[in-house]
Amino acid sequence: MVRFRVYRQHEALRVEASNALMGLLAGAQLSNHLLQLNRGSQRLLPEVYPNVPHIRRFNLTAEAASDILAEADVHLGAMSIAYALALHEDYMKTCLAMAADAGLVTRRRARETTAASQHDALQTACGSRVDPLPLEQLMVLRKMRNAVIHEGGRADGGLVDAITGLSTEAVAAWTKVAGRDPSTIKSGDALRLGHGEMLLSLAVTKNIDRACNVLLQDGLPRHVWVKIAVDDALLEHPHAEQAGIALRKCHGVARHWYGPLGLSRPEIEDELRRRRSD
User: Fold this and answer.
1) Rounded CA separation 276/138 (Å)
2) Which pLDDT belongs to residue 75?
């Protein structure tokens, strides 16, 4: 991967989101395990654990709370899809903005492209395609998110049609990661999303993020990448110019974060010279 600054920031957010979701799931299961000690008691949780912050908002017996926590993965599964897609769609806006900066697409098109059309727009701008399998899966995940938000958590015709349109390979890959075959979902079914869908949404968006990184590697002109690398380096080392070490620092950043592009020292030197002359 070419780990340009925004890609690094996006990766950090994605890892943070993944850790948070897994932490919440593990925390729910740990809490459920702890509450087994009080199962059968009629005392409410604020009485048993008065020092736990916000416990009064969970004003239930241990048994009732345990039943809710046992279903935590269903709620987290639904929330995780929306979370993962929000991060991914924001990243795609950045990719399209980079393509617009390079003159590969108009700024208006980059700004106004809908989430469902972002990948086609970037592929057209960069002149190459990505593996369609994760894009198929992403379309279904987007329909699932919409069903949770707009259909009260029930599958609608649009979701069922998207699932029906999945290739055999996409269904097999989905089932392998999520542990459930999506083609069993029928219109009107209550969606029981869980840990498997959480893992799937994180994996699918990660795969597409990386594929779009490769699109940009091939699509953006070389001089644009040189400019991006130098911008990155000078942000990282803001006093390099005054200290007379800009070329060394920029070349170091280019080798470390932009290695696959093989940006040369003379290319970076030309970019620095151009900036000084502007």
Assistant:
1) 45
2) 86
